[in-house]
Specification:
The protein contains no helices and 4 strands. It has 66 residues and is an all-beta fold. Strands 1-3-4-2 form a 4-stranded mixed sheet, with no helix packed on it. The chain starts with 7 loop residues before the first strand and ends with a strand.
């Protein structure tokens, strides 16, 4: 909560034995408008980078690190 305009954030997801999904709010925008599907393999690591411009988050992702 309380994001700062011009700030960049990184979220790291590490999957466990049970796969989880993520629902992104409408304020999170993705390249070509397509949100990533979080990797489901046990131990998979995904990173989401977000830049907050004051009203929306411009986001990119890297997936399936192992």
């Amino acid at each position: 909560s309380n994001p700062q305009t011009g700030a960049a954030y990184v979220i790291e997801f590490i999957q466990g034995a049970s796969a989880y999904t993520v629902a992104w709010p409408a304020a999170v925008k993705w390249p070509s408008g397509i949100a990533p599907v979080i990797s489901v393999a046990n131990g998979a690591i995904d990173k989401i980078s977000l830049y907050y411009d004051g009203s929306i988050y411009l986001s990119t992702f890297s997936q399936a690190f192992s």
